């Protein structure tokens, strides 16, 4: 894609095509407990964003704009046909929401797994959620101070990634070490912070401006927390609560006792949830049925 290589790992046959998006600093390999089982039901692809795992870096890694543009281009280059069912884990939630907004005719459903909640940051000893800072305040945090260090070299995979097979843990550790080696505090800039801030604010404004901004599009919210209250929806203290109110065809599934990476802590629940929305999309039936 534009002289860069992007990694897309696909398996299975059928429609819709499920696209799996990881959280920050995570890899497509993290879907290994989910993807093979989903592939028995339909086509499924796990995507490594630029600069992660086997994907080459780009000019603006982890920004919303580059991420959705890259995904749109790589799906076409790989001849992966739509329609797409987008799945976003953690911060991956803001990417799939932005992709649906940019290419609504390609997307037949969205699934959020512990997605898009609270992104905190410290700027000049002031700690706050990323959307509470102004753009100028976020820019003022860079370049990063010399006191910021990247920590020791990774030597093993910790929970929950130790739930992967020993062979996959070895691969993941290799990927983690490569990422650690590449990270340079002196080259870090505010681009990702500014992009994420813009996306969160856009999402807040959409949900506050009208009821059900996604209309009847199937939305499945898989969370380790219970369904949000109306008061939580009106608040900007977290973004996850808004997901339950995105559309009129939304179902919330609580992953009781799960850690943040539900696809590793409770992979079978993720598979069952994806099967449910795939069947609903194929039958053009409400998720509640």
Q: Considering DSSP H and I runs of 4 or more, what fraction of the residues is helical?
A: 25-40%
Ranges where pLDDT stays below 50 over 5 or more residues in a row are none
Write down the oligomeric state: single chain
Kindly provide the radius of gyration, computed on alpha-carbon positions and rounded to a whole number of angstroms. Answer: 19 Å
Strand order of the largest sheet: 1-3-2-4-5-8-9
What does this structure look like?
Helix content is 33%, strand content 16%. The longest helix is centred in the last third of the chain and has 19 residues. The model has no long low-confidence stretch (mean pLDDT 95). The chain has 289 residues and is an alpha/beta fold. The chain is built from nine helices and nine strands.
Itemize the secondary structure elements and their pairings.
Elements lengths: L6 E5 L5 E5 L13 H4 L5 E5 L15 H14 L6 E6 L2 H11 L4 E7 L6 E4 L2 E4 L5 H5 L26 H17 L8 H19 L9 E5 L6 H5 L15 E5 L7 H4 L1 H17 L6
Parallel strand pairs: 2-3, 2-4, 4-5, 5-8, 8-9
Antiparallel strand pairs: 1-3, 6-7
Put the structure in a nutshell:
With 289 residues, the protein is an alpha/beta fold. The protein has helices at 35-38, 64-77, 92-102, 135-139, 166-182, 191-209, 230-234, 262-265, 267-283, and strands at 7-11, 17-21, 44-48, 84-89, 107-113, 120-123, 126-129, 219-223, 250-254. Helix 3 links the parallel strand 4 and strand 5 (107-113).
């Amino acid at each position: 894609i534009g002289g860069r290589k992007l990694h897309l790992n696909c398996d299975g046959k059928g429609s819709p095509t499920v696209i799996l998006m990881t959280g920050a600093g995570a890899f497509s390999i993290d879907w290994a407990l989910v993807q093979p089982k989903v592939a028995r039901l339909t086509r499924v692809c796990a995507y490594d964003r630029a600069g992660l795992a086997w994907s080459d870096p780009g000019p603006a890694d982890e920004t919303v704009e580059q991420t959705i543009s890259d995904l749109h281009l790589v799906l076409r280059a790989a001849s992966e046909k739509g329609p797409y069912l987008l799945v976003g884990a953690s911060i991956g939630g803001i990417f799939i929401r932005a992709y649906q907004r940019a290419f609504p005719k390609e997307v037949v459903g969205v699934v959020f797994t512990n997605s898009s909640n609270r992104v905190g940051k410290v700027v000049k000893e002031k700690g706050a959620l990323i959307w509470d800072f102004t753009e100028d305040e976020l820019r003022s945090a860079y370049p990063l101070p010399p006191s910021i260090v990247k920590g020791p070299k990774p030597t093993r995979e910790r929970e929950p990634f130790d739930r992967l097979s020993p062979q996959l843990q070895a691969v993941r550790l290799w990927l983690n070490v490569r990422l650690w080696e590449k990270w340079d505090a002196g080259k870090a800039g505010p681009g990702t912070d500014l992009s994420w801030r813009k996306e969160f604010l856009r999402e807040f404004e959409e949900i506050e401006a009208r009821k059900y901004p996604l209309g009847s599009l199937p939305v499945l919210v898989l969370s380790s927390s219970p369904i949000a209250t109306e008061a939580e929806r009106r608040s900007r203290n977290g973004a996850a609560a808004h997901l339950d109110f995105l559309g009129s065809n939304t179902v919330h599934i609580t992953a009781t006792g799960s850690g943040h990476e539900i696809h590793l802590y409770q992979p079978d629940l993720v598979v069952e949830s994806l099967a449910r929305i795939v069947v609903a999309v194929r039958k053009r039936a409400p998720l509640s049925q």
